[in-house]
Amino acid sequence: MHEHAAPMSIYSVMDAMPVALHGTGNNRAQILKNCGQIQQYSPPRHGKGKMRVMRIMSPGIRLHIFSIVLFSLLGLPGCVETVPDELVDAIEAIDRDLVSLRAGDVSPDEYSHFVQHWIGLKARVQSEENLVRWPWEENGLETDLETLHEEGSQLVAAVKERQNSQRLSAEAKLARIEQRQRFLTASVGTIGSRLVSGEQHLETEFWIKQARTLLEDGQFERSIQASDRASKIVLAQAITLNNELGRYADQELITAWKDAARRTVEWSQAHRAQAIVISKADRLLILYKNGRKVHSYPVQLGSRGIRAKRHYGDGATPEGEYRIIRKRGQRHTPFHRSLVLNYPNTDDKRRFEAAQKAGEISASQSMSGSIEIHGMAHGITDQPFGSIVLDNEHIGALFQQVAVGTPVTIVGALESQNSVSLVLADLGDQEET
Q: Under DSSP, is residue 276 helix (H, G, I), strand (E, B) or coil?
């Protein structure tokens, strides 16, 4: 005959349940209380006591007790924590990621919403930290934490994507402004102009360096702003160049310059004598004899020589038809040799007086000054007063070939496609890109 185990009563089952779930004695009552099943439980001392407890329990309490027994017999968990620690840890990790990504700068509104939501849930986590529940019971806190976790994960992805987009934009802007600055510097060097001041150049370089530093530091939005500041300065410099030198692309003015040069060459032919034509744009002095070109010499202009001269001290080289009125040898000039021109002539005086009358030039400003074609003094090559400079070998050769009274015509350019107009066109193309 087989031996049958004695049927296990609910009380013996409860007594045999793991201490982790029920404990013993009063501890078991406390565990059940934490699970929300009973308000008070007195451990039975004998069988009658057990029956008395069963009688006083309501049907709902008895159902919960049987549930505990069933979960224990099946090896299933009973009460669980209301606050899942691993989910809280995951959200805290997302929060740290957002801080390191500077989400407050990249996506301020979205990050503010996340932070406010997280602060509210943290308070609930602290208040419900010691609560337990049945697995089948709805857990609103856990649901809200899962929602925040999903929102935070999406925000991290969005911030990374936006940062990458900002990085690409910052790199492109910086590359463009660096290219435009290099082109502007080269262009100014090509036409030998200092219309763009050194202070503007230094300011541009400062903002470009700032943009580079911010880009390398991951502050892409601020890098873009620094590049924009540099771009505005470069644009202002380009506008200054165009306003001052746009006349080199003025077809009517170029025609007038050509006519003046033609008259000088015709005079040389008619008088069978030497004559000089100087093109400021080409940085070239051409010597004619009997109407034919016999020599050409490269020249240098003053610091602002490419401009039209208006008054004393502006550093510009005048444009007009002049004559040599004096020749100075080595003992009479610090510039090796010099040919003094009759500047200002009648046309220069008329333009100066008209500009003063119109209020374009101060009434206290003077027009006096000497313009010469001369050599170099102790290696100085950049004269600030509007004169025309040749190296000493060339001024020596020219000095021997010309006489007092030789016509000297100075023009801005002799062709529409001159060095200055081409630079201005290229600058315009740079701005469009």
A: strand
Of 386, 408, 402, 417, nearest to 260 (Cα)?
408
Characterise 275 by phi-psi region: left (phi > 0), alpha (psi -120 to 50), beta (else): beta
* 338-341 and 274-279 strand pairing: unpaired
Give the span between the Cα atoms of 404 and 399, in whole angstroms: 10
* DSSP string for 88-132: HHHHHHHHHHHHHTTHHHHSHHHHHHHHHHHHHHHHHHHHTTT-E
Q: Which of 76-80, 125-129, 245-249 has the lowest mean pLDDT?
A: 76-80
Q: What pLDDT score does 432 carry?
A: 54
Instruction: State residue 344 phi and psi, 5-degree precision.
Output: -85, 145
Contacts of 158 (CB under 8 A, 6+ apart): 107, 110
Residues 6 or more apart whose CB falls under 8 angstroms from that of 328 comprise 337, 338, 339, 340, 372, 374
Nearest residue to 303 via CA among 193, 203, 165: 193
State the alpha helices, DSSP H only, in 192-250. Answer: 198-216, 220-245
Q: Cis peptide before 59, with omega less than 30 degrees from 0?
A: no
Q: Residue 130: which of 29, 30, 24 has the closest Cα?
A: 30
Closest to 32 in 3D by CA, of 52, 58, 55, 14: 14
Which pLDDT score is estimated for 243? Answer: 85
The pTM of this model reads 0.63
CA 416 → CA 250, 337, 413, distances in Å?
8, 33, 8
Helix, strand, coil percent content, the chain, rounded in steps of 5: 55, 10, 30
| Cα–Cα nearest to 408, from 328, 366, 345 | 345
In this prediction, residue 186 carries a pLDDT of 80
**Predicted pLDDT at 315:** 84
